What we know:
This protein is α+β, with helices and mostly antiparallel strands. It is built from 24 helices and 28 strands.
Amino acid sequence: MTTRRRRILRIALPSLLALLLAAFLVGWYLFAGSRARLDGTRQATGLSAAVSIRRDALGTVTIEGKNRTDISYALGYVHAQERFFAMDLMRRMSAGELSALVGPAALKVDLNHRRHRLRAVVEAAYAQMAPAAKHELDRYRDGVNAGLADLRVRPWEYLLLGSQPQPWRSEDSALVIAAMYLDLNSDGRNERELRMAQMRAVLPGSLVDFLLAPDPDWEAPLSGRLSRTPVLPAASVFDLRPLAPTAASTALTATLAPALDAPRPGSNNFAVAGTLTGNGAAMLANDMHLGLRVPNIWFRTRLRYPDAGAPGGQRDVNGVSLPGTPAVIVGSNGQIAWGFTNSYGDWQDWVRVLRDPHDASRYKVPDGWASIETHDEHIRVKGRPDTILKVEDTRWGPIMGQDADGTPLALAWIAGRPHGYNLDLMQLEHTPDVAAALDLAPHLGMPPQNLLVADSHGNIGWTLAGNSIPLRAGIDPLLPSDWSKPGSGWQGWAAAERYPRIENPADGRLWTANNRTVDGDALALLGNGGHDLGARAQQIRDDLRARPSFTPGNLLDIQLDNRAVFLTRWQRLLQHTLAGSTDPALQQLRQLTATWRGRAAVDSVDYRLVRAFRNQVSEAVLAPFAARVKQRYADFSWPGENSAEAAVWTLIHARPPQLLDPRYPDWHALLVDAAKQVTTELGRQPGGLAARSWGERNRADIRHPLSAALPRWLGRHIDMPDQPIPGDNNMPHVAAPGFGASEHLDVAPGHEAEAILNMPGGQSDHPLSPYFGAGHADWANGRPTPLLPGAASHTLTLRPVPEPSPTADARGAATD
């Protein structure tokens, strides 16, 4: 290197380093500047009195004020400071407006959701709300926008995206409710019933009934009988023997995936009466199973304000709020504790749209012909021109599909009606007992849920929460139907007196886990939108019956129960199938599963292998039926949220030759081949079968929505640790990658000091916040975290903007 070059480097290098340091410091300043304010005093417009905002070591927020409306403002302020980006994603997701923020990657989601025109729906819902409810939303909106404006720098995610956050609107809170409708109602697509219609167009009806039958072996309803044993179709109904064998393919494997009990949005809740708790108060447990992300969907919240109906005249509400709304979703108010699970009733129906053969813009309705409304929806896409989506709307809902014969289908969905949105959930904060809570439930504007309530007097109760249970007439709700006939379709909403309801059962125990809860007329009213198999509910029921008394810790133990009761019979089947095998790989498989620990623990090899065997058997049994439907309908997949366990278990034990795939000489050969598939697929991985622990497959995978867009070394700093986790489907401890219990709540109202609230992901979405990931390790490791906040680490006070003094006003008028 020449002397001149060395001189240039000596001059340039310090300058370059200085520039890099300056860029780093500017970047750090901007990044750090979007952290929430934790201490001090801020002035706020419209408050009636000062509001204090205290945070403990976990970031649990205690908001104390003189009235609930001031509390709503402060809650909005805090939500915006800690979670605005997550709130923005929820409103955009339901409105079909994500692409404007993140670009073409979200366009498919926007196209699906914009068909529902949910922004127009919630605008109508807001317009219809009572003045008091509007005011509550308006004050929450004001708090959100004040909190956003009070950040020194806009939230860091917008810096990364090169975007500006848009102000919050009052109706955006209803869009957050709409996002929950989408999450809990199959993304507003109702594909399950479309796939059922395709099956019935190809296969005999009695065969479809058998393949989709519920399993009485695993049901655990709160009331009513078990389902009947599935009836095997005779050879005269359907016979596979003359047909060609089914060719195995990855496409067919994907088609059958929904039959294998994939993770579903749902929950567990259960309650025990005061006679079983030792302190006279009833006790509630609730864990809501959802997709998990950073930050968590819920926000640890305590609200304190004067209330004449509360113990000591001071309302003290503890639980989790949903950022984007002013409500505490589940929790305890000192008199009652409440929690939810998804009901899986039938809240969507397909309607056959019979177009006028002479004018395709008209369709048949009971009173003649109506015009199809056409909307050109402009979907903004960051970095690209707008995408125009043409939405054809009917009085029943938007046209979104085709029947098996090609007839257009409109989707009637309760979330598409303004009726389904209100703030009545907030009234649970003031509800004094179980009876009053169950009376309130039919008026709540939310996705219909199983509501369990426990009160401080020892009572427990269950009912459906949600004001939109449709009254059906003249249709089969599981198939596309013609609503153009007078008196057919939805004929209004069920009155409160028709809601099923259970109070204080004789044994003092109640439970729900997305399973069928009732039968008879009540089941006909609620419908079947894809009830869970029931194994999880049954295990919870049996856990509850195994104990004579309970503490909050006992309820958490049930929530974390990862015993594989459901797979035990499959372990026995595998052992029996391989008893005479001389194949070395199959002998090893039998040996590794012979000692049955029966738990979905992270180090369980036996659990993973038996589970894989069940999946392989189920695919092989169902493949010939799925293949025949897929030959006619290329988009067919097995109806989701509909376990095929009853059909599969019946077939492999009854072994009817007419329903065996011709590729196998007998049913034993099918079972052996399924075991061989396990040894081939898992045995070829490093370490062989003996190294295939459940934790290797079942990892937390809880990520920030933007981490995938960053280099891996950087993205992991905004995700939670990707550690192995115990649990699975079909047991109380539900866990899968990126999915599981979004909280564990265990509480007896009036005894909150002994209560538990675990939560993944932490309170804050900011990696520099002391509350980023706070409490996550307790959740991941099953350690109880107190519901009540600890000592305050930080205190922020919001004070009303001082009103100008009369003297100052007079001086101002004089100078004018």
